[in-house]
Amino acid sequence: MDLELIEALRTIMKEEIRTAIKELIQPELEELKSDMRVVKKQTEYRWRDIANLEKRVEKLEIGA
User: Fold this and answer.
1) What phi, psi does 47 have (nearest 5°)?
2) How far apart are the C-alpha atoms of 4 and 13, rounded to whole Å?
3) What is the pLDDT of residues 3-34, one digit of tens each?
4) Following CA atoms 39, 41, 46, 50 in sequence, which dihedral angle do they give, to the nearest 10 degrees?
């Protein structure tokens, strides 16, 4: 085989391997993105809860 043909085949194989890997990890990647969105929302709720608790404490301290 000549060198150009070998190089062309290597390039094609690299792209096929890259595509196959993407297809394999895509479902897991989407699941992780979804999990991250859930965690982000939960974190936002927790910070809001903390802020509300701080306000309640301030009201109690002022009233005491």
Assistant:
1) -65, -35
2) 14
3) 999 999 999 999 999 999 999 999 999 999 99
4) 140
